[in-house]
Each structure stands twice: as structure tokens, then as C-alpha cells.
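User: Batch of two.

Assistant: Item 1 of 2:
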Amino acid sequence: MDIALIGYGKMGKAIEEIAIERNHSIVLKVNDENLEDFTKDNVTKADVAIEFSGPHSAFDNIKAILDFGVPIVSGSTGWTERINEVHKYCKEKNGAFLYASNFSVGVNIFFELNKKLAALIAPHTEYAVTMEEIHHTQKKDAPSGTAITLAEQILEQLSQKKIWVNHSSNDVAELPIISKREDPAPGTHSIKYSSSIDDIEIIHTAHNRKGFALGAVLAAEFINGKKGIFGMKEVLGI
């Protein structure tokens, strides 16, 4: 499979390494230094584009790749308030789009665990819930896309929670997410339920970027030749 990498930072380089290990070819690498190479002629040399850019460029990058008629896997965060626009555009273009806030196999299992725990806790309103996420200092958005996904899953289950906030809070309607930026820290996410009797806590800690990179390549392998809108649940058969 031929892959175009739109965004070639640390994550892009990790994806390249895994892709080559899995006998794929990288036919295009685009970053801020060679944006002039982001053209239809270059992108359409690829079977799939993998997009890991930034919050301010992801939306336009994704639309352009859909215009080019190339299936796209995106892991950029900080822009997803516009994801419904992308879904609509993908359908109009009869394209293929797969988005995940986190491509790690372990994190996607963690998502399922988070939903189940929140559902079990829901009747027991004596438990207060808090979240914490820790990432490296170069991460541009806070809270992380993964933390937002986790928070939205919890909001769906706990009727007393109406909104997540990115600071400490004692408001029963708010779900606090505490964001920390420390080096080196590929990513840690924890959810704690606390009562006067006990605490229940689940934690996912990434040791490096390989898990994210592998998941992104698995997603590219999955979407190659397909049409439609997908997520990691389809890739992993969850």
C-alpha cells in the first residue's frame, strides 16, 4: 500500500517506521517546510492519506484530501467541533474518512472500559468523578482529544453531569479535567470516582508512540478501497 503522510512530526515519523515494517511505502511526506508539495497530483499517488497535522490546519487538509478522492485517516485533535461538517462533506464526495482521537489499541479498549464503568456508577450518585491527563510539553491542545472522548462518554452515562471543564470544579454539573504538560510523557489518562467510603480508578499509560502509530497504520489498511465514515471500533471489531 502507498501512503501519504500529511503532517511529518514525531507522530508522522513513528507512523512511517511502522508502515515500512509492515511492507508499505511512503510516497509523500508533507510538513510546514514543504506545503507546496500538498497537491492533488502528489496525494493521488497514494492509496491512503494519514493526516496528523494540527488544530488549525486539520479541517482544511481533510477537505482537500476528500476533494482529491483519496481515503483519509486523521488523528489530529483540537478541531473536532467541525467533524459533522467533514462527515457531511465525505458523504457528498462519496469518500472514505476514518477519525480517532487516539489510535492505540489499548486506549480503544480503555474507551470501552470507561463507558462500562460510568454506566455501573451512574445509579450511585455519592461518587464524585474527576479526570486527569498528562502529555509532553509540545502537545498543542488541552485537554487532549482522548480526554474529551472519555469525558463525553461519561457525560452520556451520568445524568447529573452536564458539561466538562478544563479546571478543578466542585460544581456537581461539571466534570473536571485536569491537564498537565510534562516531559517525557507520551500520554496518561486517569478517571477517578471518589466517595467517603472508597475510590475507584482506571488508568491508561502509554510508554511510547508505537501503539498510536501501529493503530494509525492498521486504520489505513482497513480503509484502503472502502467508502464511508469509520472509527477504530470498526478497525478493531469492537
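Item 2 of 2:
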Amino acid sequence: MKRLIVFLGLPILFLFFTLGCKDEVTEPGNGNELIVKPAVTKTLVNYGQETFRAAYPDTASLHKIGEAYKSNYSQEAKNQFIDYVHVQVGSLGENKEMFIKCMDLTGCKETASISLPTNVERAKYNGEDVWIIQLVWGMEPMDLGHYKCFAIGISKLDTLDFIRCK
């Protein structure tokens, strides 16, 4: 009897976990979910130039988003990314209007710019409150493999550090 329970129970348990954990992947646009979402976090990290440049770029998020969107890139998808980040910033209890001003400084929202935010972090840089915004960009969608990383001071809306691929 125990063998029968184990024999029948394991496949049912496997199906339960497989079906319950499956993510639905949809194309961007028309109100659908994003294929891959940018990371939006709030940390206690106090970066300096050396630690900032050791932590960024976050190549995992750059690669995932760059690969997922090089054949699915559109202005609509970009707008969805930006909207998603704004909502997440608000859910962290942060000032969305101030974040939008920081995001504007990156040039990401410009329609001529082929770029997507991949990683956004609320942290400190040399003791100052910052938004760290990492973008994947390219000259054309199939070229989404370049990066720009900004540490933007919140109080003065100034760029405290900037890294890009060469």
C-alpha cells in the first residue's frame, strides 16, 4: 500500500509544483506583462567610486533584458519598462516624482534612444542619497548589449558617477 501511495503521490506532487510555479511569458504590449522585468531595490549600501565600479554593471540583468528584447524592442515596451519601474519605486515608499527627475537625466525616456532600464537601486554614494540607474542600450534593437550606469544624487539632481561600455 505504501508503494502505491508513493507511486501515485510523487507524480501528482510533481504536477502540483510544476503547474503552480510556472510563469506565464507573454509578449510586451497591449497591457501584457513584460518578458523580463528590471530589478528595483532599496539598499543600505554606501558606494564609493571603487565599490560602485565593482558592483556595476550588473551583467546578469543586462544580458537577460538585452537578449529578451533585442527582437521584441518597441517604444511601447520601453514605456512599459519605465512604468513598471515607477510603480516599483512607489512600492518601496520612495518619492516617484523625484525618481522620475533622476530617470530623465539618463536620457532613457527619449524616443530616439534605444535603451531599457535593467537595474534600479536606491542607495548612497559617498554618503549622499542616490538612485543608481543601469540601462542596456544599442544603436539598434539587435544591438542591445551596451550599458550605462548612473549614480544620480537625489538632493541636487547631479550625476555623482557614470560608467559606460567602451
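The longest helix spans residues 2-20.
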